Amino acid sequence: MNTSVTVLGLGLMGSALAEALLGDGRTVTVWNRSHAKADPLVAKGAVKAETAAEAISASPLVIVCLSVYTDAEGILGDAAGRTIVQLTNGTPRQARALADRVTGQGGRYVDGGIMAVPPMIGRPEALILYSGDEGAFEEHSETLAVLGRPQFLGGDPGLAPLFDLALLDAMYGMIAGFQHAVALVRSEKVPATTFEPMVTAWLTAMMALFPEQARAVEAGDFATRVSSVATSQVAFPGLIETSRDQGVDPGHLPALRDLFDRAVAEGHGDDGLARLITLLERPAR
Ligand SMILES: NC(=O)c1ccc[n+]([C@@H]2O[C@H](COP(=O)([O-])OP(=O)(O)OC[C@H]3O[C@@H](n4cnc5c(N)ncnc54)[C@H](OP(=O)(O)O)[C@@H]3O)[C@@H](O)[C@H]2O)c1
């Protein structure tokens, strides 16, 4: 087995990836736009390449981790005979376009999404999503497992960024709700630290509704014995009015109110909340 790996991009994440590979005894060639960032890794045994092209030619497996996708597109030269594992965050469309370019040059392409922060890299709790060339993924799976817990999602290179973005979507929605709720109680001088355990317990309990919502939307069965769309809809005028009364920006609440209003107007008031997923799949004009 060839254990040589190249890492392009030595920011916080790229350096953590390279360090994990060095810790596993791999031969690691590194390149970074600002050359000095390679020095701590060279001190740990990495080989420093002067150019991205030199780094790409050094190893059969090339891991890319830059700030944004267009940076990665800019530095990737000839990928013939190489497996490119692109871990820079991007969109499904960007991943599919880069996959076409790499395969057109005679390379193999796997896209990935890192669901972890740099200190977690190298540990099983670091979930890393992959999709694209399955043969290339399998061939390098032992090396990729050094970085974290790999999960392969399928042959479409757009799947890994899609899942990555969907998980971020869920996270930011939850954080937005938490932060808005904190602003509401702070408007009456209640410390966030007093309120936080209550909201954390509440959100944890509410997450128990997710499996039933997932089942309902897949089955197209929206009958509910828990909470209807109409019951939730009536909460929104009070939520928005109270935000304004307390001097708090209503934030995401008007958009949610509009979605509930649309569901009721379309005759779905008696359905369970999973019905809203189907409205989101059919954006309002
Ligand atoms: N950090 C995290 O917690 C985390 C978690 C999950 C995913 N990610 C993803 O991992 C990727 C890297 O994040 P990071 O935290 O390592 O970012 P970072 O610390 O800001 O590092 C950015 C890297 O991109 C390079 N770069 C920027 N513009 C470039 C260009 N035009 N040409 C060549 N290189 C360029 C930088 O080179 P210079 O050193 O020369 O500026 C540096 O190596 C991002 O897509 C991020 O979304 C990060």
Quick structural gist:
The chain is 50% helix and 13% strand.
Tally of contiguous helical segments: 14
What oligomeric arrangement do these chains adopt?
single chain
Say what the CATH topology of the largest domain is. Answer: Rossmann fold
**What is the highest CATH level, the class of the largest domain?**
Alpha Beta
Q: Characterize the overall form.
A: elongated
Order of helices and strands: EHEHEHEHEHEEHHEHHHHHHH
In total, the number of domains comes to 2
Helix content: 40-55%
Q: Which CATH architecture of the largest domain is right?
A: 3-Layer(aba) Sandwich
Radius of gyration: 23 Å
Structural class: alpha/beta
Low-confidence stretches: none
Which whole number gives the mean pLDDT? 96
Query: What is the number of E strands?
Result: 8
- Name the CATH homologous superfamily of the largest domain: NAD(P)-binding Rossmann-like Domain
Distance between the termini: 55 Å
| Biggest β-sheet strands, sense, barrel | 8 strands, mixed
